[in-house]
Design a protein that fits this description.
The protein is α+β, with helices and mostly antiparallel strands. The strands form two sheets. The chain has a three-stranded antiparallel β-sheet with strand order 2-3-4. A two-stranded antiparallel sheet has the order 1-5. The two termini are about 30 Å apart.
Length: about 160
């Protein structure tokens, strides 16, 4: 018996089968979109320490004075010929002799080129708190697994037919 004979025997692909496929495909698409949304909820943003006392600080350098303030307060290094500003440390004092101490930042400025607001920027999930952003993914998937198992058990106990995975 080949495929065409089996399909002919069971009646082909009717309206019921098409509706079932549409329902199953639409629910699968929604799952994929929901999992993919985590990338937009907790994105990896470019950021650096904010300049203390400078309320209008932005991630992008706005003027020569702004650049001088950034160079005065924020540690910098070079990566492949490009200046990279430290994301977590700031100079705690500015002295002429170059003996400067550092401290952890208390505020940050974010690159808002692609993303204007996110959980990462609103809750400052950077530097020491960056692990919390990664835990968001973990807790999301743990909740999904817990929901799948508990809903399966619940449907088995409340219905007449068993649900098979």
């Amino acid at each position: 018996m080949d495929y065409e004979e089996v399909i002919g025997t069971i009646g082909g692909c009717g309206l019921y089968q098409k509706l079932m496929l549409a329902f199953l495909y639409s629910s699968t698409v929604m799952d994929g979109l929901q999992i993919g949304s985590m990338i937009f909820i907790v994105p990896d943003l470019d950021y650096r320490c904010a300049i203390p006392g400078y309320d209008n600080d932005t991630y992008k350098i706005q003027s020569e004075i702004h650049k001088e303030l950034i160079n005065e307060y924020i540690l910098k290094s070079e990566d492949e010929g490009e200046v990279v500003y430290d994301k977590c440390l700031i100079y705690s004092n500015t002295t002429e002799n170059g003996n400067r101490t550092t401290q952890m930042c208390s505020s940050w400025v974010y690159d808002k080129t692609n993303t204007h607001t996110s959980i990462t920027s609103q809750l400052n999930l950077v530097c020491d708190k960056a692990i919390l952003a990664r835990h968001t993914f973990t807790f999301y998937f743990m909740g999904s697994i817990l929901a799948m198992v508990s809903c399966g058990i619940l449907s088995d106990s409340l219905s007449f037919a068993e649900v098979y995975f």
